[in-house]
Putative transcriptional regulator
Amino acid sequence: MALPALEQDEFRRTVVLLLHHDDEGATGVVLNRPMPVRVDAVLPPWQEHVSAPARLFRGGPVGLDSALGLVVVPGDGPEPPGVRRLHGALGLVDLDADPGTVSRAGSGVRVFAGSAGWGPGQLEGELVDGAWLVLDAEAGDAVTPDPGGLWRAVLGRQPGRLRLLASFPADPSHN
């Protein structure tokens, strides 16, 4: 999650779900950047199965010509067809799978164009610099019907003083 000090437009007030992290780098998707593009512009069969707002989301600046899907699959049973569990109720969607089968197995689907990526040690350096917070995700964050309010909502559910960041003004000079 981007801290207020991170003012780069691409990541300002973003909530990033980290999908993979190892010695070679990290990959994630920005959860709160809906685009003014319907999903059917790139993946017509998925339009009626995605969660509101039924838009394509900008997952980040890397690979904007590729798409990635996330689904919330309640329980801890076997993976439904077309889904690979990431952790907990969150799973990656095989966008070549049958959309109806995937959406019936889950409680929400979201499609992202692109992703966020960091090279070896880059994310760790940005954490040391105070650009990001590492917080636990809730499955519903990935498919929230209010992506514009997600940054504040995630901070608002944190304990102690961290919760105060939720009320940090967009422009501190107006404080």
